[in-house]
Structure formats: structure tokens, C-alpha cells
Amino acid sequence: MPFDRRVWQEAQALGEAGYEVSVICPAGKGFDKTYEVIDGIHIYRHPLKEAESAAGYAREYGSALMHQIRLSFAVRRRRRIDVIQACNPPDLMFLVALLHKLLFGTYFVFDHHDLGPELYVSKFGRKDFLYRIMCLLERQTFRTADASIATNETFRDIAVARGGMDPNRVVVVKSYPEASKFRLTAAEESLVVPGKHLIGYIGIMGAQDGVETLVRAMAEIRHVRRRDDINCIIIGDGPELGRLKEIAASLDLDHSLQFTGYLSGPQLMAHLSALNLGVIPDPPNEFNDKLSMNKVFEYMMLGLPFVQFDLRQASSEAGSAALVVREHSPQALANGIVELIDDPERRKRMGLLGRAVAEREFQWSLEARRYLDAYRNLLRPGLAQRGHRPHPAS
Questions:
Q1: Alpha helices in the chain (DSSP H)
Q2: Cis, peptide link before residue 90, omega less than 30° from 0
Q3: What's the pLDDT at 61?
Q4: Where are the domains of the chain?
Q5: Which of 31, 112, 298, 391 is most deeply packed, by most CB within 10 A?
């Protein structure tokens, strides 16, 4: 925090509605203070090393859980906690909420961001004992939750069918950016090169995010297609960043591919405003097929056409703003990129269509209202008796 846009918007929405909010999260991406207050939000941070193996997964989760329990009681020493909201992964955090629920009667809201079991399979390619543990943890998370916030209708259906939740206690809140903060600006001058087209990616770089496919697609474009008029920037951070840089160097892409690292604020918008085309390289699988991807909403809000693989939820939300590549390979992704780069009129139409949908439908203020209604419905009976200002911890 405040790197996670969705959680930061939720925290700010709660704060603006009169709640006092504390957030427990990992340190990193330039935000390393163990405690600070930003815009009235109390932020408690703990160290975290992301897993690179199945065994590392258990160590990562176990360490994070211990820090979260410790910091949850640090929050409680300062202020009563009425609600704990957990944003997965991992699906272990219900244990923090369960402890406070049993001891103090604290409510638990599950903000369902990712599919834990499917994420495990996408990372490690197997359904073993740890996968079954992941399924168990997901069921227990839903069983413990007093309310669940779903990122899309598919997640809502999973909460009801797989999690056994009452449909009336599941609310869909989509991860739309705030339009006032996410719009085109003057492009970063260093990226605007006469005679060159610029494509780009924004997001996390984990094994499941498919960014290596984009890197290899750039090698196909540069060395096989002999196209030196297409450059690429990759914006973001993640456990795969170092390895991806090594792959790019080994493929001799130093002059056409740039890793910017984590960007935010005006610097991020200047980089995105320089793009001619966005890319979503996430591979088709059970996990990605169900996700609403921030990149889809962000590209569309900027009127930026983009190329993606055949992902059911993302394709549904993107509509005509995206060129969907049916075959999952660097070569097929390169085909889609070149096809759109060579058709500026089509790119313009796609961008205008995406922007029109975003202006009509992507309204965070409406999502925030649904989110706050879920809290009001949960807290109204208890707060009428207690007569005090509520304090959620996330």
C-alpha cells in the first residue's frame, strides 16, 4: 500500500465515509516504513519474500500470517476493530479474522481478489496435496466470512456455489480506476521516437502473468520479422523481473525493449500516454480465464487498443477494444501486435469504442457506493447499539 490500487481505493472510500481504517500489508516497491499514515489511512507493513517453489509457498504464507496476527493486535492496542477485511491471496488470512471474531466478536469481510486453488495450479502445474489444502482454505475463508466482495460475477458465482455463501451476502465491486486520476496526459518525451511505434504492458510480473511470452514475441518481431519500427516498454515489478531482464538481454533486445520498474502518479500516466498499443500476455488457463484484469479497464479508459489471448472474462469485458489471439504462443502474439500496428485506422476505432464503454460503464463512484452499502448492511444493527465510530482493518 498504496501500490495496490483496488485496496487503496477501498480504504479511501471507507475513510471518506467516516470510518477509521488501518491496513496491514507487505513492504516493498518504495514503501518500506513499518508504520505510517497516508491520507488518514494507518498503514502497518511487514517483510515478505515471494515464493519461487511449492515449499517456498508454505514458508511465504506462514511468515506472512505470523506478521499479520502480530500487527492485527498492534492495531487493536491503538483502536477497537469492528471489521477485518482480508484481500487474498493467500486464503490463510481468514485465520487472523477468526481469532478476532472468536475473542472479540469482530466481523469478517472477504475481498475475493484471486482464486487460490487455480493460482496454485497456474504457478506449479499440478493438483497435489497442497492444492487440496488450498481448496480447504478457500472453503474455510467463505465459511468464516460475514460478507464477501467479489471482483466480478464469476467470482460471485464461485462464492455461492463453491463457497456455500448466501447470495445476499455477496456483493460485486469491480476494480475500475478513478477517471479523474486515470486519463491521457503529455507523453513521456524519451519514449516518443519518430518512425517508431510503442507497445506496452503494465502489471505484476509473476510466473502466471505471461510476460515472458511478450518478451519472446518482441524477439520474433525484431529478429524474425525484421521489424525495427516497434519498441516495447514493460511497466511494473514482481518476482520474475530479474529473470525477464536476463531473457531480454540474451535475445538481444536491449535497443527495443525497456523495463521501467514500478511507476505511479504522473510518471505512470506519461508513460502510458506514449503507447500506441497495449498488450495483455496472460496465458489462457483456469485461473486467468475467470479474472477481471485491471489492465483491461486501464487500457480502455485511456482509449488504448490492445492485444490479448483468448481469456473468457477479459474478452467479455474488453469487447471490440481488444484483438483476441486464439493460439497461445509468442509467434501468434507477434502476429496480433504487427497486425494492429500496421492498421492505424483499426486501432483508432478500437480505442474509441473502448473509451466509449469506459466512460459509460467504468465508474468507480458507483462501485464505491456498492462497497460501502455492504459495510453499512453488515454494521448497522451492531453500531446502533454500540454508538461509536467503526474501525475496519484490512
A1: 5-16, 54-78, 94-104, 116-124, 129-144, 153-161, 211-219, 241-250, 265-272, 294-301, 312-318, 330-341, 344-361, 364-386
A2: yes
A3: 77
A4: 5-176+363-393, 189-361
A5: 112
Whole-Å CA distances, 48 to 28, 59, 96, 115: 8, 10, 17, 20
pLDDT at residue 108 tops 50: yes
CB atoms within 10 A of CB 227: 18
CATH pick for 5-176+363-393 out of 1.20.1270.10, 3.40.50.2000, 3.30.700.20, 3.40.50.140 = 3.40.50.2000
- 173: cell is 465491486
Whole-number Cα distances in Å, 218 to 11, 146, 166, 212, 278: 38, 47, 47, 10, 13
Q: What per-residue confidence (pLDDT) applies to 384?
A: 41
Instruction: Write the CB contacts of 73 (distance below 8 Å, at least 6 apart in sequence).
Output: none
Contacts of 154 (CB under 8 A, 6+ apart): 290, 313
- Determine contact, residues 337/221, Cβ cutoff 8 Å: yes
Amino acid identity of residue 214, one-letter, is: L
| CA dist 240 → 81, 156, 206, 235, 334 (Å) | 37, 30, 5, 13, 21
Mean pLDDT rounded to a whole number for the chain = 90
CA distance linking residue 120 with residue 117, whole number of Å: 5
Instruction: Identify the residue whose cell numbers are 515472458.
Output: 212
pTM score, whole prediction: 0.85
Structure-block grid coordinates of residue 318 = 474488453
CB 23 within 8 A of CB 43: yes
How far apart, in whole angstroms, are the C-alpha atoms of residue 188 and residue 272? 8
The number of beta carbons lying within 10 Å of the beta carbon of residue 62 is 12
